[in-house]
Amino acid sequence: MNIGFANLVTLSRLVIIPFLIYSILKDNYFLSGLLVIVAILTDYLDGIIARASNDVTKHGELLDPAVDKIFTVSVLVALVEKHIVNSFEVFLIIAREMLVTWVRSVLVNKGIVVPAYFLGKLKTSIQLLAIFLLSINFVELGKITLWISIFLAYVSGFEYFMIFYKEKAWK
């Protein structure tokens, strides 16, 4: 099986995660910030590489959001351990992601492909900014940014549920 360079770039985020968690737990803010930036860049680059090399695959389309979620949850759990964010905030983020993933899966099984909307992309960008700020110990600004991302997450999630309702996807 040819995994493709773009998918290797995506998988490199998984390799970064343990080092990022360690740097957060050891208060190495410079390394934490650097690793978050590298992870964000790989997230940006994997799609560009896949499209430029005409190597967009179903595996990559599924792998990228899965790795994104693993990255986000792993970093947030490390931040919970450091008492920088609380478990309720992480619960809100995980619950939304799981519900939207479920809705999108049900819709895909009904032949309805729902692309990522602007608000969802904005939510992701602001969430990554929050993770960066929190990882470099800009706690107050990071927490405000995280709550903005949570608000946007639920607003954008509502868009998916409206399609789910409109399409009567539960039938």
From TrEMBL:
Coiled-coil stretches:
none
Q: Quote the InterPro entries the UniProt record gives.
A: CDP-alcohol_PTase-I (IPR050324), CDP-OH_P_trans (IPR000462), CDP-OH_PTrfase_TM_dom (IPR043130), CDP_ALCOHOL_P_TRANSF_CS (IPR048254), Phosphatidylglycerol_P_synth (IPR004570)
Query: What catalytic reaction does the record list?
Result: a CDP-1,2-diacyl-sn-glycerol + sn-glycerol 3-phosphate = a 1,2-diacyl-sn-glycero-3-phospho-(1'-sn-glycero-3'-phosphate) + CMP + H(+)
Q: Name one GO cellular component term.
A: membrane
**How does this chain sit within the bilayer?**
Multi-pass membrane protein
Q: Which PROSITE patterns match?
A: CDP_ALCOHOL_P_TRANSF
- Entry protein name: CDP-diacylglycerol--glycerol-3-phosphate 3-phosphatidyltransferase
- What's the source species for this entry? Sulfurihydrogenibium yellowstonense SS-5
Task: Kindly list the organism's lineage.
Answer: Bacteria, Pseudomonadati, Aquificota, Aquificia, Aquificales
Name of encoding gene: pgsA
